[in-house]
Amino acid sequence: MKKFIFRLLVLLPVVLYALYHAYSAYYSWYSPEYEPLYGDNKFLYPLLNLVPVVAFFVFDLVREKRIHPFYGFLRSAYYVYLFFVYINIVSYIPYERYFNLPMLPEEMHRFPRYNLIPFETITGSITPLNIYGNLLVLLPLGMFLPLLYPRISSAKQVFVVAFLTVLGLETIQFIVSYFDGMVYEYAEGRAFDIDDFLLNVTGSMVGYALWKKVLEPLLKRWKMIPKIPEQTELLS
Fold this sequence. Notes:
Blueprint: H1 2-29, H2 35-38, H3 44-48, H4 51-63, H5 69-89, H6 95-100, E1 114-115, H7 128-137, H8 139-148, H9 155-183, E2 192-193, H10 194-221
Parallel strand pairs: 1-2
């Protein structure tokens, strides 16, 4: 029972954040002219956006054996951070359009934008603010991973996880834009950009370097990292 309550408290902040996002997304995207798209399911489609990420959080938390307040707080912050990244990169997947709008004529289809040439966007149209934003958005990931997952402690392991994470997010953006362009005249303008990919992964590795060279030594010196065996359940 104690473990259940502990895990519930860890998940509570991100669940509240996710429900708030679903509520906001509904009122941001909903328009009376699209009432037939929603019918009696006005909140169903925004909630569908939450299912994959919340399911991942539950699965990840159940697998975690170190039931300890320190790691519980960090994991709760980690989930809120991941959800923030998800909604800011993927934004909103308009399921109501996919399920209810007819296919546009082929000549009206909008193929998603993409860039596969490294540094073309960085040296061209992108602003310094976008460059810094893409570097910073996944910087915390490089710090969270070695702290929360003992098996992901080397630079190579962090790089692989960051690479796959960014690849997944960029691919989701591309797929959402692709299907949106087939059913909606004013489709989403999101794109797959190799420069975003490079900046995001670089930001993760900068985060890992900060963790390894600065934060980890400081936390160990201040004895803020409890020495807990990976399989210990202190609240059992």
